Amino acid sequence: MVTEKFNIVNLVNSDGCFDLQFRKDTRHERTNSPTYYRWKAQFVVTSPKNDFKILEKIKNEMDCGEITVSKDQARFSVQKISDIAEVVVPFFRKNLLADKKKKDFELWAKGVEVIQRNKGKSLASWKKNDLCTLIEIHKSSAKYKNRPRAPKWLEMAKAFSKTK
Question: Which of 19, 74, 78, 101 is the S-S candidate for 97 at Cβ 3.0 to 4.6 Å?
Fold first, then answer.
């Protein structure tokens, strides 16, 4: 019996996600529970819980990210922007994805560049152009998603870009 060689690109083409989102985080443990808004990028691959060994292979090959298991699903994700910029983006620039996933990745990679460039800065100090670029990327990438979600805080992101 011939077994197919493990191929991250094929797996990502079917079960991978390049996620870019504008988030609202409330720090309940702090006095007055301050609220923070931020842009976040993540790379995710999911599989049925019993196939989590495949995700371990991805984690080992990329040497970054985390695997979580809940209910019937296993999930590999890379959320550190430096790991995304230094490992994930170069990997998929070298190992090309197919069709819609490739277009989604290219938009996401541009978003990663903007987030990486502004790493450590408060949203208020970002250039207006960077904020507008992320909003446009977020809107444009929806057509490449299998199940696009309605953006929760995108109106707040637009408000940030208008105050500049």
Answer: 101
Amino acid at 65: G
Question: Which residues face 86 on adjacent strands?
Answer: none
What tokens appear for 95 in the block?
A: 């190992």
Counting every residue written for the chain, the total comes to 164
Q: Are 41 and 66 in contact (CB under 8 A)?
A: no
Domains of the chain: 8-27+36-162 (3.10.28.10)
pTM: 0.84
CB atoms within 10 A of CB 162: 10
Kindly report the average pLDDT of the chain as a whole number.
Answer: 86
Q: Which residue has the tokens 């007055």?
A: 32
- Please report where in the chains the tokens 């922007």 appear, as a residue: 81
Residue position matching structure tokens 């970002």: 126
How many other β-carbons are positioned within 10 Å of the β-carbon of residue 161? 18
5-63 pLDDT per residue, tens: 568 999 999 899 999 998 887 776 767 777 778 899 999 999 999 988 999 999 999 99
